[in-house]
Amino acid sequence: MATDRSDNHRAAAAAAAAAAHVEHPDLQGLARLRSARDAICQQVARTIIGQDHVVEQLLVCLFARGHCILEGVPGLAKTLLVRTLARSLSLEFNRIQFTPDLMPSDITGTEVMYEDRGTGERSFRFVKGPLFANVILADEINRTPPKTQAALLEAMQERQVSAGGKRHGLPDPFFVLATQNPIEQEGTYPLPEAQLDRFLLKIFVGYPDEAEEQQIYRLTGVETSHEGEHVLGAADMLALQEIVRRVPVSDFCVNYVARLVRSTRPNESDAPKFIRDWVLWGVGPRGGQSLLMAARARAALDGRPEVDVEDIRVMSTAVLRHRIVLNYNAESQGQTSETVIKRLMDETPTTHVDREARSRVESVLRR
Fold it and tell me: What global pTM score does this model have?
């Protein structure tokens, strides 16, 4: 009898120990997110040669529920890259070619008169435009007038469009990737800095290296039947995006981002001398929020339950490059936002942050 009670006690203790070791659901989600990232990168690599860093940053932007600007010369497979990414995520993809004669209703949709032939009744019905998709490639956004740009930016910010005095919600998830051509600026309508600030990241697409370019040429004209596999669905993506938002950030990292962002403002008393000499306008609070969200997404895609300083430093250029306005003095000396950010990162080491504020996260994920 005593033996039975002892066996029961050990079994109960073992069950309790097993229950204690069950992973938090969000940790399971992070593991799934990392696995999905690897699968998506494999799918993209079957179609796109190189551009690994671009794919990584696009995934960061997508899972952070942000939008991005992709800048590069023609012929670098930007459209193919976005279409392949959307296919691997089972998302609906639309490409909009922006031109000077494009009107807001051409992208948002419009009210049309409908007549019922049986009853003769007439009514207005809303016909959805190409914005009603999960992934939108806004090709050459700087070649369309400000009125159409504003309609796109409203959809990005509010995730809805207005037509005929009514609001129409856009599908969720909703991701806008706007491209800009760095050459042939005649007849363009550059986005003002206030509108650029609405984009989470600005990603540069460069030329492939020699080996990658040779591989591209070898595959040119070769018939391929690879359509790609669906890695995640829309519902899965929404769930994983919520997990990304719950990835905790220590006070140490928050203070580091605050110091980094405030150092870009030339009017701050502790701004470096080169910032006061070269920068006209620095980064606002939205830039700091965007940097923390991008760092969260990078950590989550790597399967880590906490943001590290390295996540912040890696994402800083893509997040801040379009939020810093340089003056003529900087441009005359050949400085760019990238060189300014690099120097700022070099002169803002983590040791300058109050280390007393650094503490380990008490729980794995903030509820």
Answer: 0.83
